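> forwarded from #structure-qc
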């Protein structure tokens, strides 16, 4: 009597690899409303995945505050407002919370929905421990959404990364600025900041 052949479970056509759950923006909001997301945690939705955002160091906070002040003053006569750490909706599966955004109109224009790509003149992430992510995966997602002007402020090296010309594969233009250089907004060329205005002195 021959023994039965072992069953190769790995090759069985009825078994599939487990897939992670992805969320829509509406489902993400519902999770928050139900209290299923920790209230003390900052999260964002990226490509259907709920991402826990990194804690902010003092250099991060200082650079963001200085950037908001400088841009707010430079753009005070323009039909825009400067939002900090507020949600924007890229599509039905991505709702990041960039450190700063220059948004069309006034805050009251967004009572029923968050700003979308067509409403955004500039998106900025301030990076201390997240530089690779902000210049890589997040830059690709912003490019795919059509964000025309994306900056990453590298607080560790005191550099400003400027990404422009979005394509489905990512940004085709990437410029790195160092002090004493400055940058101007693509939509408002007269609005110019110098790097020494936003990076705290060591």
């Amino acid at each position: 009597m021959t023994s039965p052949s072992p069953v190769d479970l790995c090759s069985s056509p009825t078994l599939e690899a487990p897939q992670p759950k992805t969320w829509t923006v509406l489902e993400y909001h519902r999770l928050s409303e139900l209290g299923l997301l920790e209230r003390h945690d900052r999260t964002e939705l990226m490509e259907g995945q709920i991402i826990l955002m990194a804690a902010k160091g003092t250099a991060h906070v200082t650079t963001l505050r200085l950037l908001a002040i400088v841009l707010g003053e430079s753009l005070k006569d323009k039909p825009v407002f400067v939002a900090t750490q507020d949600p924007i909706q890229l599509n039905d599966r991505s709702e990041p919370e960039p450190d700063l955004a220059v948004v069309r109109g006034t805050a009251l224009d967004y009572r029923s929905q968050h700003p979308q790509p067509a409403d955004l003149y500039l998106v900025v992430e301030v990076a201390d421990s997240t530089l690779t992510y902000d210049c890589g995966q997040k830059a690709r997602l912003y490019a795919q959404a059509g964000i025309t002007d994306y900056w990453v402020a590298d607080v560790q090296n005191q550099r400003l990364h400027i990404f422009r010309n979005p394509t489905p594969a990512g940004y085709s233009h990437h410029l790195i600025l160092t002090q004493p250089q400055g940058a101007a907004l693509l939509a408002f060329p007269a609005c110019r900041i110098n790097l020494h205005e936003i990076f705290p002195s060591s």
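QC bot note: The chain has a mean pLDDT of 87. The two ends are 81 Å apart (CA to CA).
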